[in-house]
Amino acid sequence: MKKQETLRQRDIRTAWMLILPSLLIILGITLQPILTTFILSFFETSQGQIVPTEFVGLSHYFNFIKDPIFWATIKRTLYFTFVSVALELVLGLGIAQLINSHPPGWKFLRTSLIIPWAVPTIVNGFMWRWIYNADYGALNGLLLQLGVIKHYVPWLIAPQRAMNLVILADIWHTVPFVALILQAALATIPEELEEAAAVDGATSWQRFVRIRLPLLRPAILVALVIRSVEAFRVFDIIYVTTNGGPAFGTVTISFLTYLETFSYGHIGNGSALSFLISLFTMGLAYIYIRFLYRPEVNP
Amino acid sequence: MRVRRSTRRNIWLFLVTIPVLVFIYAPITWLLISSVSTRAELLSVPIHWIPQNPTLKNYLDILTPGTSTSEVASAFKITLRNSLFIATSVTIISIIIGGIAAYALVRMRFPFSQPLLIGLLGTRMIPEVSLIIPLYILAARLRLLNTPYILILTYLSFALPFAIWLMATFFESIPYELEDAARIDGANWLQIIYRIIVPISTPGIVSTALFVFLTAWDEFFFALIFTNTLAAKTVPVAIAEFSGRYVVDISAMMAGGVLAILPPVLLALVFQRYIVSGLTAGAVKS
């Protein structure tokens, strides 16, 4: 008995020893920095310096609440998040369904999805920026030849249109991820289930809503959480496609944080903003899990 | 009758498949065409869909820079090498350190193993931007700015939790009996990992390595902030920087873009079957 106790204790010690290197790295480069950022958000720093000088309490947070630029940025970020995630889910589900109906060439389609998924975000933004180019872009070239436009259009100079075109570029890269996840989940639904429903006279729409959709819920939830958290923090593709422009029309909350911190040198403001992003994404994940997660349909 | 209906259905579905394939391939094809076009053709109006004088010069400029190559082309080769070094290092470190931790977390039941695993998932919610200021201060203090090492270290902040989580889900499915038998034979943890866990979960480890490599290759924000010389600049930073000024060497940019796409796309296509299993197990990179 006593020997077993010591064996167990030795096991625990070994386990901790094996986890320690990972734990130290993760604590050192995530937990410590995020706490420091949180603390920095209560301080003012002098221009160009990193060292906090003056304790200002919650005033950075209050300033944002009063700032119309902040709310306009939140609105744009939510627009980007909502529109891109909604389109990704609809298109992703559509493509997953299409692959699962096994039309000629479905394997080729499934393999093809991997390509846009694997393209690095920055290259994706660069590619679309080249397509949207006002003077030499392929979009202008194509639409002119088709007779849709009479002259080349500078696509990215109108804020709202620029935002929508960034969303299009983003979708090209992210729909495959949603489609692949949902397709894998669809493939696990037994055919007998739907055949039985069909025999009972269920229409294909009824079978989709009553059988497939509920069984897909866990996979949809995963895609939804991951994609909205990432869309809410979007930065890379905006940086390379529009650089926040025109006229701040594509500045999202992460981009504003970047500007505050690195362009304006407002470390305190930047820290407060980045902390708000963390809070929001955690809240988002919590809400989804709370309202969408149903243990009984979890396979 | 039945056959005819299914044929019609297939034609219908095929007609839906075509626009999807066009949407996937059109942008990337245009990038490929641009990369073998001359500068004059890239800047021609009306647009030249098919280059009259296709050339590999843009690629050769990057891969074998001579005295006449542009700043853009010669920078690309260096940044490609940096990206490769950084992404490979992050992958190897995460697999080894993370694999050992994942084993301990799922196979050696001990207090706190469950909360630790959930905490790992929680780190995914932390945006990079909220880590950057303290990490910048740390990097400046350690004189690690503009070195690949600060990128390797900071990339571990997202790669390591993810690698541990993904490998933990794969290791969990290995039957305990195998391990117990080895234990009775007196094998220690290293031997168990090496002789049992690794051989059985090779697909899971390959899939994890693939995801980590792709995410590290993709990373932009840390690289943008921590590097401003060619000593450590990565491909995404070079592309973002040059794309702001098309005048420099637009044709080299296109070839650079294709070269930046090649490693992740080829890896993903070759190891295709590991991707779906990884997506469903960890569902992380997107």
Offer a quick outline of the entry.
The complex is a heterodimer of chains A (299) and B (286). Chain A is mainly α.
How many individual domains of chain A?
1
Reported CATH architecture of chain A: Orthogonal Bundle
Quaternary state reads heterodimer
How far do the termini of chain A sit from each other? 40 Å
Structural class of chain A: mainly alpha
Report low-confidence residues of chain A grouped into runs of 5 or more. Answer: 295-299
Our Rg estimate of chain A from Cα atoms comes to: 25 Å
CATH structural fold name of chain A: MetI-like fold
Query: Care to count the β-strands of chain A?
Result: 2
Q: Helix count of chain B?
A: 14
Strand order of the largest sheet of chain A: 1-2
List the keywords.
heterodimer, A: 299 residues, mainly alpha, MetI-like fold, two-stranded antiparallel sheet, 12 helices, 75% helix, globular, disordered C terminus, B: 286 residues, 73% helix
Question: How would you characterize this protein structure?
Answer:
The complex is a heterodimer of chains A (299) and B (286). In chain A, strands 1-2 form a two-stranded antiparallel ribbon. Chain A has helices at residues 2-40, 59-66, 68-100, 106-118, 121-132, 138-146, 159-186, 191-199, 204-232, 236-241, 253-263, 267-292; strands at 43-45, 52-55. Chain A has 299 residues and is mainly alpha-helical. Chain A has one domain (59-297): MetI-like (MetI-like fold, Orthogonal Bundle). By secondary structure, chain B is mainly alpha-helical. Chain B has one domain: MetI-like (MetI-like fold, Orthogonal Bundle), CATH 1.10.3720.10. Chain B has helices at residues 2-35, 39-42, 57-63, 71-107, 113-122, 132-141, 148-171, 176-184, 189-200, 202-218, 221-226, 235-243, 250-270, 272-281. In chain B, helix 1 (2-35) crosses helix 13 (250-270), helix 4 runs parallel beside helix 7 and helix 7 runs antiparallel to helix 10 (202-218). Chain B is globular. The mean pLDDT of chain B is 87. At the A-B interface, helix 1, helix 4, helix 5, helix 6 and helix 7 of A face helix 1, helix 4, helix 5, helix 6 and helix 7 of B.
